[in-house]
Amino acid sequence: MNKITQLFKIQYPIIQAGMIWASGWKLASAVSNAGGLGLIGAGSMYPEVLREHIQKCKAATDKPFGVNVPMLYPNIQEIMDIIVEEGVKIVFTSAGNPKTWTSFLKEKGITVVHVVSSVKFALKSQEAGVDAVVAEGFEAGGHNGREETTTFTLIPMVREKLTIPLIAAGGIATGRGMLAAMVLGADGVQVGSRFLATTESSSHEKFKQMVVDLQEGETHLTLKELAPVRLIKNKFFHDVMALYATSPTPEDLKTLLGRARAKKGMFEGDLEEGELEIGQIAGLINDIKPAADIIKDMVEEFEQAKKEIALF
Question: Which domains, from first to last, does the chain contain?
Answer without folding.
Answer: 8-202+283-309 (3.20.20.70), 205-281 (no CATH)
